[in-house]
């Protein structure tokens, strides 16, 4: 131990005190305290700064990533309206090109055989459900007189252009304007069982390629394995197959704490988070992705997630007609985060340097403590 470095700072320090201090320095208790403080600092440096925080590593948090998805599963639908049909990924995945943000159709309302024609804003041929609620969904379409339907004006939030005729209720009609548009207009009747309820068993294969440019390190989440059929057999499971990149839709929804069948009916948004936390010092084979799943939309029974699209056809007579789909489904957002660290001499030297400075500060602190205790221990000094 070198001399009392703080000595000059100690007020009213006299020669006698200084000699006393040297005496105290030889004191057992103070010696132990000094040792304990230095040990604490060394422990903190090694345990926290170097082992826990790995500050001997250079860390990169900007991950470069690419995600490719592939959905698999086939489902058959036998409905009284449209008959038997078979749905494959090419039908229910939008867009179909394997994007990181994908939409899987789980329910839909189909309005077949629409042609450009004249019809009521709410068609008389629709079900009780629609004629009761239809005019409420398109309030601008309601009318009691032809004056309520100025020709050429589009129905606000409606389906076409007003023709100037009011299909009056007292004539046993809909009480809405006649429109020029795709007729008949869509029925807002909703099927109560998700049509693609079996989509629970569909799987998403997520291929994620990442790169940490600072370390020129690349990796994929698809495990390199001798067993060629591994990917055909496995389904992601937190415990059994944590590195299997194939996810059952039902499992994903279940992990977010929701039920697939509820979500399939009205739609929703799900985030799939892939987190890479790699310590490149212990080898690239130890660098694994960790998956987690969250529901992104505010869940309520009122908000639904849907959009519409149409398929156009021409019949033999050359007339264009279309089938309109209002689709409900689950939107998946795949988000990749990560960081990697590797030993580098510069951060190591910097941290050793600051460690040494901390040790110096430690002995400075001890000296200061010594000064204070000196003052307390020597009441004759006055003050
Ligand atoms: C579809 O359902 C109808 C009755 O609703 C039935 O007659 C028909 O055989 C079914 N088709 C198939 C392929 O299951
Ligand atoms: C749609 O049109 C086709 C041919 O024009 C017809 O066979 C079919 O029954 C129509 N479907 C509906 C639901 O009107
Ligand atoms: C109104 O329509 C109902 C059923 O659509 C029918 O039974 C009734 O006779 C119609 N009334 C008139 C006045 O057309
Ligand atoms: C999903 O698959 C399992 C077995 O693989 C089956 O028992 C279950 O009925 C299927 N679920 C649906 C909704 O088809
Ligand atoms: C998720 O699945 C487990 C096991 O199959 C089940 O016990 C649990 O109730 C499910 N959670 C939800 C939210 O459906």
From TrEMBL:
Family classification: Belongs to the P2X receptor family.
Main location: membrane
Keywords, sorted A to Z: Cell membrane, Disulfide bond, Glycoprotein, Ion channel, Ion transport, Ligand-gated ion channel, Membrane, Transmembrane, Transmembrane helix, Transport
Entry protein name: P2X purinoceptor
Species this chain originates from: Clupea harengus
InterPro entries cross-referenced by the UniProt entry: P2X_purnocptor (IPR001429), P2X_receptor (IPR059116), P2X_RECEPTOR_CS (IPR053792)
Xref: Pfam families: P2X_receptor (PF00864)
Single GO term (MF): extracellularly ATP-gated monoatomic cation channel activity
UniProt GO cellular component terms: plasma membrane; postsynapse
Compartment list: Cell membrane
Transmembrane domains' residue ranges: 31-51
GO biological process: calcium ion transmembrane transport; response to ATP
Catalyzed reactions per annotation: Ca(2+)(in) = Ca(2+)(out)
Membrane topology, from the record: Multi-pass membrane protein
Underlying gene: LOC105907798
């Amino acid at each position: 131990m070198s001399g009392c470095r703080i000595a000059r700072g100690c007020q009213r320090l006299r020669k006698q005190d200084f000699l006393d201090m040297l005496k105290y320095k030889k004191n057992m208790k103070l010696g132990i305290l000094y040792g304990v403080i230095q040990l604490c600092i060394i422990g903190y440096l090694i345990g926290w700064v170097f082992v826990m925080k790995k500050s001997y590593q250079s860390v990169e948090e900007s991950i470069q990533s690419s995600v490719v998805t592939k959905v698999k599963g086939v489902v058959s639908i036998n409905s009284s309206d449209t008959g038997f049909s078979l749905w494959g990924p090419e039908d229910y995945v939008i867009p179909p090109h394997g994007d990181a943000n994908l939409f899987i159709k789980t329910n839909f309302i189909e309005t077949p055989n629409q042609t450009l024609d004249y019809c009521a804003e709410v068609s008389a041929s629709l079900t009780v459900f629609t004629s009761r609620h239809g005019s409420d969904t398109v309030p601008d379409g309601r009318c009691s007189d032809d004056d309520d339907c100025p020709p050429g004006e589009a129905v606000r939030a409606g389906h076409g252009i007003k023709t100037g005729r009011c299909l009056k209720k007292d004539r046993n009609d809909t009480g809405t304007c006649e429109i020029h548009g795709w007729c008949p207009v869509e029925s807002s009747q909703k099927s109560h069982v998700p049509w693609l309820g079996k989509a629970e068993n569909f799987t998403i294969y997520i291929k994620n390629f990442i790169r940490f440019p600072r370390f020129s390190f690349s990796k994929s989440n698809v495990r390199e394995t001798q067993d060629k059929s591994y990917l055909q057999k496995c389904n992601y499971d937190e415990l059994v197959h944590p590195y299997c990149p194939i996810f059952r839709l039902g499992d994903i929804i279940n992990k977010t704490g929701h039920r697939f069948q509820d979500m399939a009916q009205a739609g929703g948004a799900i985030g799939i988070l892939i987190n890479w936390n790699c310590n490149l010092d212990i080898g690239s084979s130890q660098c694994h992705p960790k998956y987690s799943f969250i529901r992104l939309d505010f869940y309520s029974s009122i908000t639904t997630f849907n959009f519409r699209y149409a398929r156009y056809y021409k019949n033999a007579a050359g007339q264009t007609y279309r089938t309109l789909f209002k689709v409900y489904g689950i939107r998946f957002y795949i988000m990749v985060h990560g960081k990697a660290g590797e030993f580098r001499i510069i951060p190591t030297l910097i941290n050793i340097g600051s460690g040494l400075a901390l040790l110096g500060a430690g002995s400075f602190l001890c000296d200061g403590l010594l000064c204070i205790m000196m003052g307390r221990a020597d009441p004759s000094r006055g003050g």
